Amino acid sequence: xxxxxxxxxxxxxxxxxxxxxxxxxxxxxxxxxxxxxxxxxxxxxxxxxxxxxxxxxxxxxxxxxxxxxxxxxxxxxxxxxxxxxxxxxxxxxxxxxxxxxxxxxxxxxxxxxxxxxxxxxxxxxxxxxxxxxxxxxxxxxxxxxxxxxxxxxxxxxxxxxxxxxxxxxxxxxxxxxxxxxxxxxxxxxxxxxxxxxxxxxxxx
Amino acid sequence: xxxxxxxxxxxxxxxxxxxxxxxxxxxxxxxxxxxxxxxxxxxxxxxxxxxxxxxxxxxxxxxxxxxxxxxxxxxxxxxxxxxxxxxxxxxxxxxxxxxxxxxxxxxxxxxxxxxxxxxxxxxxxxxxxxxxxxxxxxxxxxxxxxxxxxxxxxxxxxxxxxxxxxxxxxxxxxxxxxxxxxxxxxxxxxxxxxxxxxxxxxxxxxxxxxxxxxxxxxxxxxxxxxxxxxxxxxxxxxxxxxxxxxxxxxxxxxxxxxxxxxxxxxxxxxxxxxxxxxxxxx
Lengths: 204, 282
Fold this sequence. Notes:
The structure holds 2 protein chains of 2 kinds.
Chain A: E1 3-10, E2 19-26, E3 31-35, H1 42-49, E4 57-62, E5 65-66, E6 75-78, H2 92-96, H3 104-110, H4 126-137, E7 144-148, H5 156-173, E8 176-180, H6 184-190, E9 193-196, H7 197-200
Parallel strand pairs in A: 3-8, 3-9, 6-7, 7-8
Antiparallel strand pairs in A: 1-2, 1-4, 4-5
Chain B: H1 2-10, H2 14-38, H3 70-105, H4 107-123, H5 126-136, H6 140-151, H7 154-168, H8 171-178, H9 183-219, H10 231-242, H11 248-275
């Protein structure tokens, strides 16, 4: 499935435009890097694509059709801070199984250990939590993945492990993916092409 | 080696002790309520042969100017106070949770109205509002209970409102929505676990407030009627006899009330700690 953003524009009430006239198309199986200086609206764009925010102008189409806002959203976003993305009053197995039941092979791939399941989120590290968030986002109905600074907070080894797992699944299921990162080398290594938000938008 | 494991198993950690003492305290409170309810009313019958006795083994808390056993009166009074406190605190918590939820979930207009109500009630001293409401409803048990319910909810409502707003705007709730979960599901699974401790703690903190206000209102004669064995009644009556040296009339009932309130406070604090995942290892 390909995702299209048409003429997207976004601003917060009473503030100047964050970006306008953004057009982008991403094909299935394509991994695209998204680059822009801080404050240029990378995260806002990701949130619009994943249905967390409504664009002020324009629309997002999946396979030429608007996305149904009810039910499992086919575009899943993984956040930068995993500790904010899990309910602190849920045990980890409930967190993991909220949207779907990941099978054992996926858990092995991501290095999620069985004994973590009965723990509280505050008893796991950021890297361990982020693995849960990734597994949770990779449901069978996920057609498109957006990683917004997904591994920025993690150490190099955990980063490598998570990216390996994610890449394997994305390739296997022929999913599209957007990677937002400040790390030039990582983006070059992972992505087929890089979009510079700075260049495709008009800010006024 | 084996011995080490065994002592490990026998040794209770702080959590176990806390659970143990909390249950113990709760049972004690329950006993006071049950004891007060089923105590033979003849024990506080007038008996002029035994009037004005100082505390002794036979009359633990002494007797008053009508020869009534002060221990029995105190237990009955505490029992009544706890019942009034429970009804008042449960009612207040219920109002607080309902209004807090309404303010946080039903849009700006509802929020303004509820916030205005909270400010209104907080701007009037508890006791004044309580006296007005109790008086309007004709005083007595009904007047006091409704008065207590209608005056003690605002601060808890504010906490609940803030908590619901915070959880609703959190990332995990937004993620949950993108996973296709309904608002009802989110309310039950995401928001409720955050509210439950607030509700329990709110209730347990309200309780001492409610009980003391009940005693205060009764003390100044606007609450429960004088023939009921309420702590407030006992305290206000015994004031007249204090100057004649009958210190036990006010001392023991007052101390018992303080003790009950402190135990309740302490139980509340323990439950809060026990329910908090970040303190699961203490």
